[in-house]
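Incident log, structure service

09:12 report received: a user says their structure output differs between two submissions of the same chain.
09:20 pulled the input from the user's history:
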Amino acid sequence: MSTSENFCKKLGISFKSQSLLEQALTHSSLKQDENNERLEFLGDRVLSLVLAHALFTLFRDESEGELAKRHASLVRGELLADIGREIGLPEIIKIGGEASNINTNIIADAFEALVGALYLDSGYPPCEKLILQLWAERLAEHNPIPEDPKTSLQEWAQKLGKGLPLYEITKREGPDHAPVFTISVSVKGLPSMQGIGASRRLAEKEAAKNLLAHIQKS
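09:34 re-ran on a clean worker, output below:
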């Protein structure tokens, strides 16, 4: 039994098409064709639907906006990567020599590609079963609705008449498949703060979080 087949066995899933599974685990740094990018696109939509349906069922008294915040917290790239690490996904991802390490983005993308491949191979039910199994504890936690730091900062700034926060890329490093962004955020009357992340969105969230922390201390 191959490493990838053993991985699937532990997860309780199986593939009729082994080539589809292998494609889901192949990063674009190794192959320009037949890599996992298109499967990632599909898997992202399947994952989003399964979790949206689960939240719709679990939190019947919450508004669309409240459900959207919960959903966003459950499909974060960092969380996908954490779950990927929990199930041993990094050990079977195939990357090219130019990709020096398997970072958060690569793991999260591979997880979505795995879901997309499973959907094409076996349909919706096995995908739903796998996702609900891996997200069970997180869905069961009826925590307060998570707040996005960018939204919180914007609401605070507008409430005080300071206008919208301004985000600016101050540095971009690393190769195209594993970039690192440094972004500064500024609000009228406050010092700017920086955030670093594997995507512009993550760096902006980190910058907003740091500025909110400064506001709370002052």
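09:41 both user submissions now match this output. Likely a transient worker issue. Closing.
09:42 reviewer note: The chain is about 55% helix and 10% strand. The mean pLDDT is 91.
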